[in-house]
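This part of the workshop introduces the protein records we will be handling. To make this concrete, we reproduce a full record directly below:
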Amino acid sequence: MNWSGLENLLSGVNKYSTAFGRIWLSMVFVFRVMVFVVAAQRVWGDESKDFVCNTKQPGCTNVCYDHIFPISHIRLWALQLIFVTCPSLMVMAHVKYREGKDRKYVMVHQGSHLYANPGKKRGGLWWTYLVSLVFKAGFDTSFLYILYRIYHGYDLPRLSKCSLEPCPNTVDCFISRPTEKRIFMLFMVVSSAICILMCVLEMIYLIGKRIFKVINIRKENQRVVFADQHELTTIAPPRSQYRKVDPTLAESQLSLNKSQKRRERQKTTVL
């Protein structure tokens, strides 16, 4: 399989990913694809040829091999890598759809853009990116569970017992290089677990960032509404401008005071 073509195809996802997404992509291609292509295929290349059982009964070795290895590790990991990397194509397809939609909008509306940045994770693209993370973490978790259930753990025993037909009795079967294969299997399991952790952290980061953004928008809207509802009216003159009137004064005295104030205003206007 041409893994370099898949790597070139998915390398464009980097510019749409967060820091956690870039770490995930590096983990996939450096610690999983490269190890799978360079080392793991050679280690498991002789698993069927060098599988030996201490019997000469025709067909017994093949039946025991099929029982101990229901599916090859290499093929299982190849399927896992294909399923895990495919959700990233959803993000690229959504971005390409936005870019095409934006080009049509520019042609119709004479230069004005529909999207300022088609790769910005907003609206539907945010949900597509989040769903792709869920699928990637889900596929990795499912394949780890399948590997655990098929081989009853993440270990390869040096000696396996087999008593299936047409074996004449319980025979001992041996696999080649069990320690080396165990190390590679544990390495692939740990790297898959780290990729799952990166996906979970990225989901937490995206959801947390979205929540904080919504909270800030709500606070800003509440502040604007509060300001609109409590607009300042005309400020009343200070209390020092008011003169206290003695209610005990007679009406004649009040009228005299008013006439004096009127004459003082006239003098000031003349001056």
